[in-house]
Design brief:
heterodimer, A: Butyryl-Coa Dehydrogenase, subunit A, domain 1, Butyryl-CoA Dehydrogenase, subunit A, domain 2, 4-stranded antiparallel sheet, 10 helices, 53% helix, globular, B: alpha/beta, Rossmann fold, 9-stranded mixed sheet, two-stranded antiparallel sheet
């Protein structure tokens, strides 16, 4: 066992912290208020290499390990989860999916600009009537010989408007159920692609979320990832890795709220002393600290397993379920510790609380994670 | 043109200092080490100069006098863009010792511009830059807040009371830089962090130099006493307390 980070991992953690604490913090409240996409920050994060940090240098990525990714995601998410979800979707869903399962030609064409952050990606799985039950895809990719004809609607798509490259999950052979599903690489600006209105969300308001409609969109066969019918397996495998990103995001939201709470509790006085000296507050902080440490260890273990090339699906499900649930608990307590100040935007913790809620829902709800965890117990 | 940036390895500026060993040193456990903030700004300015179109700068080196523990700090400098790093393998004993060690390296390698931060955020000595220029017998300019190269000529801005002084100087010289030389220190990109592994970090044995001073004792500043609030109706109490307790009047 070795709990020490390498020098490079520490350097990446610091770089992410510096960017978040120096730049993202400046306009995070305003962007959240007005649901403004962080265009300039995305550009800067791309230049620093965070948008493709997990991709191999061969495809213009940063070539960093998943442990570094957890550390960077935590630091960015402490300040701005809207920025970190853009980073997470691009890295661990879109880039990872293409790097792991696409062919060489597809990697050259699509992965390189995504890894450089010149384009960002979106992952289109959820539908109006297929969220947790991802097998019941109604979007169809009809086989027309040398192309697919794509029709249907996808919901809750992160980066929908700002992305250049979509990975779309669609049904080709309904009779084969989930074994008939394909994943297609689709240009956001292809003819027949249209967006629903910007979703007016509770939290992560500056990430751009829309529904996406496909009307007779022609997708060349060459843009299908893997064999015919590989799409569902592709989505599930990719989501295994994606969970590490969202788990680390939840961890960052929790630790961001915690750090602010500790600082506040050391400064705020009530009944003649700083409130951290009141046991009721001190014990809350102790509970928060333990939960965060547990979540961090789960995230890092899942990341380590992935870096070692070992199975990590179970650990990433545990990390995501636990980190998301404790993020909700910790941020709620953070607002409580701040009292009235916690309920106003200036102190950030109310926003972190709104952001925490989403981590229990997207990329597999906490309940779906429990299905993954319990099924692996049954199969043992 | 070659630039050398002198790098001090200092505790993160938010570190809580705890004195140990009869106040002869401080506890270094768990301390996060960083590039001295002024040196980091100097390095950022050097990088910006090198990146300018048609820049005469060909190489940026960084140097530190310190033990192996300081190498992560030098590698961070490489990650943000320095071309190579030099570590003089010795404990940094005092300002003279550090300046004299760096002077030896400068004499051997011939740099055109040597940049030092105006002070280091740990001991705030503000002495290395001045001593270094004296040992090298080259001009030095202190409090530099701007460094430009126009038609091969170096121009420096220096903050003076109520304004800015503009100076020209021949190379080689030592510039002792302060805040304003660059806006924000540069954050290393993934590519830089990756490349830092491959860039040279040369370790040199120290020259035979004696330190001129020795640190023997540190004292913590006295804790601030609590603030006393006096009711506006009792202004007389304030006069009495200022006289009797604070002994200010």
């Amino acid at each position: 066992m070795n709990f020490e980070f390498t020098e490079e991992q520490v350097m990446i953690q610091q770089a992410a912290r510096d960017y978040a604490q120096r730049e993202l913090i400046k306009d995070v409240i305003e962007r959240d208020d007005n649901a403004i996409f962080p265009t300039e920050h995305v550009k800067a994060l791309a230049e620093l290499g965070f948008l493709g940090m997990l991709v191999s240098p061969e495809y213009d990525g940063g070539g960093m390990d998943t442990v570094s990714y957890v550390l960077a995601m935590e630091e960015i998410s402490k300040v701005d989860a809207s920025a970190s979800v853009i980073m997470s979707v691009n890295n661990s869903l879109v880039c990872y999916g293409i790097e792991a399962y696409a062919n060489e030609e597809q990697k050259q064409k699509y992965l390189k600009p995504l890894a450089r952050g010149e384009k960002i990606g979106a992952f289109l799985l959820s539908e109006p009537e297929a969220g947790s039950d991802a097998t019941s895809q109604r979007t169809t990719a009809e086989d027309k010989g040398d192309y697919y004809l794509l029709n249907g609607t996808k919901n809750w798509i992160t980066n929908a408007n700002s992305a250049g490259t979509y990975l779309v999950i669609a049904q080709t052979h309904p009779e084969k159920k989930h074994r008939g599903i394909n994943c297609l690489i689709v240009d956001r600006h292809a003819e027949g692609v249209s967006l629903g209105p910007h979703e007016n969300k509770m939290g992560m308001r500056s990430s751009d979320t829309h529904s996406v409609m496909f009307t007779d969109v022609k997708v060349p066969k060459a843009d299908r990832i893997g064999e015919d019918g590989f799409g569902f397996k592709f989505a599930m495998k990719t989501l295994d890795g994606g969970r590490i990103g969202i788990a680390s995001q939840a961890l960052g939201i929790a630790s961001g709220a915690f750090e602010r709470s500790v600082q506040y509790a050391k400064e705020r006085k009530a009944f003649g002393t700083e409130i951290i000296n009141h046991q009721v507050i001190a014990f809350k902080l102790a509970d928060m600290a333990v939960k965060i440490e547990n979540a961090r260890n789960l995230c890092l273990k899942a990341a380590w397993l992935k870096d070692q090339g070992k199975p990590y699906g179970l650990m990433s499900a545990m990390a995501k379920q636990y980190a998301a649930d404790i993020a909700m608990e910790v941020t709620t307590e953070a607002v409580q510790i701040h009292g009235g100040y916690g309920y106003v935007k200036e102190y950030h913790v109310e926003r972190l609380m709104r952001e925490a809620k989403l981590t229990q829902i997207y990329e597999g709800t906490s309940e779906i994670q429990k299905i993954v965890i319990s099924r692996s117990l049954l199969n043992d | 043109m070659k630039i050398l940036v002198c790098i001090s390895n200092v505790p993160d500026t938010t570190t809580k200092i705890k004195l140990v060993n009869n106040n002869s040193g401080y506890d270094k456990t768990g301390v996060q080490w960083i590039i001295n903030p002024w040196d980091e700004l100097a390095l950022t300015r050097a990088l910006l100069l090198k990146e300018e179109q048609g820049s005469p700068i060909t190489e940026i080196s960084v140097i530190n006098v310190g033990t192996k523990d300081t190498e992560p700090t030098l590698r961070k400098a490489l990650a943000v863009g320095a071309d190579d790093a030099i570590r003089v393998d010795a404990e940094a004993k005092d300002a003279y010792y550090v300046a004299a060690q760096i002077a030896e390296v400068v004499k051997n390698n011939g740099y055109d511009i040597v940049l030092c931060g105006i002070e280091s955020s740990d001991y705030n000595g503000s002495a290395v830059g001045g001593m270094l220029s004296e040992l090298l017998d080259v001009p030095s300019v202190s409090s530099v807040s701007g460094l430009f190269i126009e038609d091969g000529k170096v121009k420096l801005n220096r903050e003076i009371d109520g304004g800015t002084q503009v100076l020209a100087t021949e190379t080689p010289f030592v510039a002792i830089v302060q805040k304003g030389i660059a806006l924000d220190p540069r954050i290393p990109a993934m590519r830089g962090i990756m490349m830092a592994r491959k860039k040279p970090l040369v370790v040199l044995p120290p020259a035979d130099i004696e330190a001129l001073t020795e640190y023997i004792d540190y004292e913590m500043p006295q804790a601030k006493s609590a603030c006393k609030m006096i009711d506006e109706d009792n202004a007389g109490d304030m006069i009495r307390l200022l006289h009797e307790e604070a002994k200010a009047i």
